[in-house]
Amino acid sequence: MSAQPKRRKFRLQAVPGRRRRYALRVCGREPLPVLGQPQPERADAARNRRRIIDVASRLIAERGAHQLSLDEVAREAGVGVGTVYRRFGDRTGLVWALIDEHERRFQVAFMTGPPPVGPGAPPDARLRAFLRALVDRMVAQQDIYLQLELAAAKAPGYSGPYRIHHTHVAALLAQARPDLDAGFFADALLAPVNVRLIHSQLVERGRSLDAFKAGLDALTAAVLHAPHGGRPAEA
């Protein structure tokens, strides 16, 4: 008689995160990938990605994003150029990865960080603090964002970060002024916070960063103290 195949035992294992998800685990082995979730990176792949990101950040700081070369990034990071292309696709993909590094930290700050950007402050104070922090973030990565503006002309649309920012601003507006058309006014408040306008205000018009933020504060106050909420009247 042939030997019977050994039966595998399975159990559900909780996967850490804000929402409870479960991965099917073979007893004595690592968890299997969760359906619909990205698979964990191998340790060597994670190290390569970190080196590539660090090198690209340094080269952009030294020379600007418009001179970023994937060949040079690969050489400086000590990896094959094919590794960079497979991982990021092209220069725009690598620039998005740099944005993503900062965006993750920014989202942690306004979702779970200390007030007034994070929870614990009144919604109007959080709204002003969030918009000011978003301006600072764009100024800090101005060169990278300008490169993405050029790429966006070929594939117009709102990015994932914008949709997250819009949802957050709309939620704060709804708390502060439940009568507002929160979705519309969230777009209106985020409209000035784009890298091209900020660059024009600071460089071409000579406005200081503090003056730009003060103007944004005034716009926010005007929305929060609007005489009506901007919703169409009920029939």
Gross geometry: elongated
Using only C-alpha atoms, the radius of gyration works out to 23 Å
- Strand content is 5-15%
DSSP strand count: 2
Task: Look at the helices and sheets and give the structural class.
Answer: mainly alpha
Strands side by side in the biggest sheet = 1-2
Q: Specify the number of helices.
A: 10
- Supply the CATH superfamily name of the largest domain: Tetracycline Repressor, domain 2
- Fold-level CATH name of the largest domain: Tetracycline Repressor, domain 2
Q: What is the terminal-to-terminal distance? A: 81 Å
- The poorly predicted ranges are 5-38
Give the domain tally. Answer: 3
Main sheet properties: 2 strands, antiparallel
Domain HTH tetR-type: 46-106
InterPro entries: Homeodomain-like_sf (IPR009057), HTH-type_TetR-like_transc_reg (IPR050109), HTH_TetR (IPR001647)
DNA-binding region: 69-88
GO molecular function: DNA-binding transcription factor activity; transcription cis-regulatory region binding
